Amino acid sequence: MKKITLFLLFVLAGLLFAEVSIQEIANLLNHDPFDLTETLLERAKNARDLSLSEKLIQTWQDGAWVNQGRYTYSYDENGFLVVELFQIWSEEQWINAGNTNYSNNPDGQPAEIMLQQWDGTNQVWVDYFWATYEYDENDNLLHGLLQVNMGETWVNWVYATNTWSNDNLLMEVFKEEWSSESNNWVNYEINTYTYDNGNLISYMEQEWQDGAWLNKGLDTYTNNAEGYKIEMIFQQWQESNRSWDNAYQELFEYDGDWNITTEYRNNWSWSGQTWTDYRVKYNTWEDDVLVETLEREWNDSREWIDISKTSNTYMLGIDSEEEMNPISIVLTNMPNPFNPTTTIMFSLVANSRIELAVYNIKGQFVKMLARNPFDKGDHRVTWNGDDVNGKPVSSGVYFFRLKVDGVTEVVRKSLLLK
After folding, report:
1. Which of 168, 198, 255, 292 registers the highest number of CB atoms within 10 A of its CB?
2. Is the dihedral of CA 120, 124, 128, 129 positive or negative?
């Protein structure tokens, strides 16, 4: 496994104009190889659901914002993400660096992801990662296979198996790595999740060493009364004294619509035995859509300095519900907030086949409310605040997604308060 990682990074480092993308990949690999494709999978869903067209990354240099990198997104006729192009700014122009190609299943979930690196010398894209995914009937990810291009052939790298609860909560991720010596899969890592009333309260990583599972890292979450995380503490396992040691803390602040406005990152000071300022992110939202993230860092002069800024551009405007809805389908629900029942209302301009589904704040499928032909005109569908198994869901933000003839998507945000 380590030999493959080192070889891959060595090959990538030799490719022209790839410095930023390689660093991003290296950072992910230092965490976990499969985090790479998990991150891309989540990014694909976010880009698709929000019709993201461009993400511009800038850094603060000599009193001005300077272009660093940008992502641009392309979609198919169904609105599914198919290409994510990453470029870096060099000599006053955008230079290709990385390309991610998505193949989606009929439900719009990425079934395959191919990552490519730009070879500036030969002016071609070179394949280097290939990930394939399998889902259950609720669109929960069951299996993921990551392979790496070794020049002449694709070589297995990591295989992940996810276990879900009856409430569609992710309970465990079991990861195996490929052993070229024994030519089979061997234990690699286990991630376990713990919840309280559907809210994540802990995430633990364990790794396989010398025939046993050893603790590695632990995230502990504190949630507010509405179920939103307000604090996360990451601790690392110290085998020498068999204890969890503080590493860093994250604090979260929200606006009235429960969008994260501020994210603080504090490091643990062993000398002072307290949390110390490190970084902070400020998110700017418009109509519940993230348009900008400003990141600052605490310096030695005990002041916050600008580090980076990420600006998002969307294919459709965010000024009004009308703009996000090119064929004038208006999706509403009453009451909102509600407990536990609400009525979703929409109007069709023609006979159409619709899919009306509920998703939670994490983007996880909750329940399909309708999937069949509807006549032209006004319609009402009731949701009783339950999941696919008929069990009541917890308080929080939920999204109603309406698909019309497999093409149009309209999303409505709603709040369940118990």
Report:
1. 168
2. positive
Alpha-carbon gap, residue 43 to 81, rounded angstroms: 10
pTM, full prediction: 0.71
How many whole angstroms separate alpha carbon 332 and alpha carbon 338? Answer: 13
Alpha-carbon gap, residue 116 to 130, rounded angstroms: 9
- At residue 52, the 3 state secondary structure works out as strand
pLDDT, one tens digit per residue, over 151-189 is: 889 999 999 999 999 888 999 999 999 998 999 999 999
Give the CA distances from residue 119 to residues 40, 69, 123, 328, in Å, rounded to whole numbers and listed in that order: 21, 17, 5, 45
Letter string b/e over residues 246-274, b meaning 16 or more CB atoms within 10 A of that residue's CB: bebbbbbebeeebebeebbbbebeeeeee
Element (H, E) at 136: none
Token match 């990583």: residue? 205
For 350, phi then psi, to 5°, come to -155, 165
**Beta-bridge partners for 69:** 57, 88
- Quick: pLDDT tens for 354-370: 889 998 876 778 899 99
d(CA 5, CA 26): 9
For 148, residues 6+ apart whose C-beta sits below 8 A from its C-beta are 4, 8, 128, 129, 130, 154, 155, 157
